[in-house]
Amino acid sequence: MQQKHSGLEIGLYTLGDIGPDPHTGKTTSAGQRTKEIIEAAKLADEMGLDVFGVGEHHRLDYATSAPPVVLAAIAQVTKRIKLTSATTVLGTVDPVRLFEDFATLDLISDGRAEIIAGRGAFMESFPLFGYDKNDCDALFSEHMSLFLKLNENEKITWDGQYRSSLRNAEVAPRPLQKQLPIWIGVGRSPDSASRAGKFGVGMALAILGGDPIQFKPLVDLYRKTGTEAGHALENLKVGITGHSFIAKSTQQAKEAFYPYYSNYWSYLNRQQGLDFSMSRADYEKIAASETALFVGSPQQIVEKILRQHELFGHQRFMAQMDIGGLPFNKVAENIKLLATEVAPIVRKETSK
Question: Residue 320 in contact with residue 12, Cβ under 8 Å?
């Protein structure tokens, strides 16, 4: 049974990054990190949040390479919260296997499964699974087209360029939902926003910094492309995702989060071959009241979410909290504050 709230859906997502705690230097094991992700989802469900997402990376410094497996474990300890990948690297997964995995998750969870599909921030899955990264865009489009057909038909006949043909193939099991909800994850790419609109699926927009108004053209392009392709505007759903940390006061939140946030960007950039450290002055600019970084008091977070809702008219907000080696007890505190002091106000204001 899914959670039912009016107004904006509010949830969480994790990429399962494994980073050292900047205060202690200790790094959590992949096993402990995975258990904490499951526990975070259980707490989010108990606190009445709407959705929980698990990302996909194929690296030793991430704990979650198999989101449907982790989400299936979460399904067993939750009752109402929607369960989504965040994101599935669609170009390097077979669409038939993807559909069957998430249809199974949908049955296990009594109809709570969703998928956010993306091209991926890293490219390690391409050689790992035998794909050419130069085919990234073409693979994504073909796999999405096939997935949407699988979502509509129990039996399918299909021909493509990158996988073997299907001839009256049975695809099982079928999900409990009529169709699995699927979104496309978008960063700053107009091509990705346009692609989501053409396919008529949801757009999950990652806004990780700067003034959110600069992302409005992407939302407008998504809706324009979608309606021009013949999709109903009410079916073109927008989700906004971003980094978040909440404390009793905005100054407390900024002080507490800076070591973890700076640490996160340091190791994330090292993974990309870049040498980068975030100064406190840089951080203060990024965390200012008009920016998209959701760091502050509950009231500050409410104001930032509502400002974005005025800009985008979106249906879902998902916070990423567990970054930079943030210990689980602090993650749990943040989940409780989001659920009890932010979500009720946001839902009330956005349901008017």
Answer: yes
Tens of pLDDT, residues 201-212: 999 999 998 999
Using one digit for the tens of pLDDT, what is the confidence trace for 23-35? Answer: 999 999 999 999 9
Beta bridge partners of 317: 10, 240
The sign of the torsion formed by the CA atoms of 236, 104, 60, 336 equals positive
Residues in Cβ contact with 347 at an 8 Å cutoff, skipping those fewer than 6 apart: 5, 6, 7, 8, 10
Does residue 290 contact residue 211 with C-beta atoms inside 8 Å?
yes
Nearest CA to 158 out of 225, 87, 99 is that of 99
Under 8 Å CB-to-CB from 331, ≥6 apart: which residues?
Answer: 36, 40, 321, 322
The span from the CA of 268 to the CA of 274, in Å, is 9
pTM listed for this prediction: 0.97
Q: What does R_g of the chain's alpha carbons equal in angstroms?
A: 19
Tokens of 199: 């396919």
Give the chain's domains with CATH numbers.
9-350 (3.20.20.30)
CA gap 176, 324 in Å, rounded: 37
Pairing of strands 166-170, 155-158: antiparallel
What Å distances lie between residue 25 and 259, 263, 299, 324, CA to CA? 12, 11, 32, 11
d(CA 82, CA 77): 13
